[in-house]
Amino acid sequence: MLEPINISLASLNVMTLAPMLIAIAGALTILCIDLIKSNLHKSLYVMVALLFLLLDLGAVLDFGNLLLKNGPIVGMFDMMLIDGLAILSQVIIVAGSMLFIPLALTSKRFHEYNYPEYFALFLFMIAGFQFMVATDNLILIFVGLETASLALYTLIALHNRSKSFEAAVKYFTMGALAAGLFAFGAMIFYAITGSVEINKIATILANGAYLNIGFVLVGIVFMLAAFGFKLSMVPFHTWTPDVYEGSSAALAGYMSIVPKIAGFVVAMRLFDFLVDTGVVWLQVILYVMVVVTMTASNIWALVQTDVKRMLAYSSISHAGFVMAAILIGSTQANTGLFLYWALFSFTNLGAFSMLWVSRQKNLIAGQSSDHPYEKFAGLVKTMPMAAIMMGLFMLSLAGIPPFGLFWGKMYMIGSAVAEGYIVLAVVMALNSAIAAYYYLKLIIFMFMKEPISGYQGQYLTNASLSLRTIIGIAAIGTIFAVFAVNPLLTIITRLVETSVY
C-alpha cells in the first residue's frame, strides 16, 4: 500500500500567491456586493478596486524587501518565482492600474463604468498579468496570459460602439492565434527537453542534450510569433492601431503600457536564456525585428491623420525600442528597460488621457475619425491648459531634454554602446529623431494654427477632479523625472541583479 504524501504549507510557500489572490479577492468582492445590492454608484466600485490594488501593491513591495534580503523566492511546487523581474514588473502593473481606475469617474457618457463586472474583470486581468511575470513555468505563463487576455477583450467590447466591437473581435482573433502559437512553442520545448520550466529548458539546451537544432528553431519561431503579436512587433502589429482606435482613449493608453510590460518580462526570461545558449541566429532575428519595428512604425506614424492612431504607431515604435534591451541582454540593458517603461507609463497615459479631455459626442460633417490633427488646431486659444499639457507629453515622448523619456532613451542607447551594438545605437538615435517630427507636428497644430470652427471639445478646467488629478500626476512625473532617475536606477539595478537569468 502506498504511503500518503504529506506536504506542509511551509514547503509550498503559498504566500507567493498573495499579490494575485488579493486581486482575485477584490474581483470576487465586487461581484458579491453587486449580488447583495445592485445599481450602486460606480464610485463605490472604484474605491473597492483601488483599496485592493493598494493592498496588492503593499504585498508586492513586501516581497521586494524580502527579495533584497534573502534572494529569489520560489513556491507552489517551484512554479511561482519571485525575483527582481517579477517585483519590478508587478509594481508597474499595479501602479499603472491604480492610475487608470480613477478615470472611471471622469465621464457619465461611458456606460461601461456603471457595470460592476467591468471592475471585476479589470482585477482578474491584473491577476493574470501578475501570474505571467511571477513564474518561469510555461504552463502558468499561458494560464496568466489567457486570464488577462479574455478579460481585456471583454473590457474593450463593453465600450459598446461599432468600432469597439470590431476592435474586440480583432484583438480576440489575434490573441487566440498568439495563444495557439505559444502553446505549440511550449509543446515543442517540452518534447525536446522534458520540462516546461524556462530555467531547466535553458540548462538542457546549453548542454546540447537535444536531438536536432531544427526542433529548437521551430519552437523559437513559434514563440517569436506569439510574442510578436502580444508586443505588437512588426509584422505582427496590424491589429494594434484598429484596436486602439476602437477602445476608449484611457483604455488604449492602459493597453499600451501594462500588457506590454508583462510580455516584455516573459520574453526577457525566455530569449535571454536562449541567446545565452549560443543560438546565434536567434540574435540575428531579434536584431532584425527590433530595427524593423522601430523604423517601420515610425514611418507609418508620420503619415497618420488621426492623433490616436499616431500614438498607437508611436507605442509600437517604443515597444521596438525597449525590445532592444532583450536583444542586448546585459544587466544595464535590462535595468534600462524598466527605467524606460516606468517613465513611458506616466507620459503615454497622460497623452491618451488628454485625448479624453478633447472628446466629442458626435463627429462633425466631413470628420472621418475621432481625433484628427485639425481638431487640435489653435488649441492654445480655446483650451490653453490642455494645449500646454499635451505639448509637454509630446516633448517627453519625442525624447526632448530634460523631460522624462529623454533619460530612458539615453540610458537604453548607452547600454547598446556599452555592449558593442554601435549600429543599433545609431538606429535608435535616428528613430528618435524621426519620431520627433510627428510629435512636433501636433505641437505646431496646437500652438501655431488658428482654431477650426465646428470642433467642440471640453475644457480641462471643466473636466472632473479625477481626470485632472491623473493628468497632473502624469505631468509631475514627466517634468520631475530628472530628479528621480538616479534613485530609480539604484533600486532597479539592485532588483535586476537579484533576478534568475
Q: If you had to describe this structure to a student in words, what would you say it looks like?
A:
By secondary structure, the chain is mostly helical. It has one domain (14-360, 369-497). 73% of the residues lie in helices and 1% in strands. It contains 21 helices and two strands. It has helices spanning 9-12, 18-36, 42-70, 84-100, 116-133, 138-157, 162-193, 198-206, 213-230, 239-246, 249-255, 258-276, 280-302, 307-328, 331-357, 379-382, 384-397, 404-418, 422-448, 465-479, 481-497; strands at residues 73-75, 80-82. Strand 1 and strand 2 (80-82) form a beta hairpin. Helix 15 (331-357) runs antiparallel to helix 18. The radius of gyration is 22 Å and the shape is globular. The mean pLDDT is 84.
Describe the largest sheet.
2 strands, antiparallel
Which term fits the overall shape?
globular
The helix-strand sequence is HHHEEHHHHHHHHHHHHHHHHHH
Query: Which parts are unreliable, with pLDDT below 50 for 5 consecutive residues or more?
Result: none
Identify the strand order in the major beta sheet: 1-2
Overall pLDDT confidence = 84
Assembly form of the protein: single chain
Between the first and last Cα atoms, what is the distance in angstroms? 42 Å
Number of domain units? 1
Question: How large a portion of the residues is in β-strands, by DSSP E?
Answer: under 5%
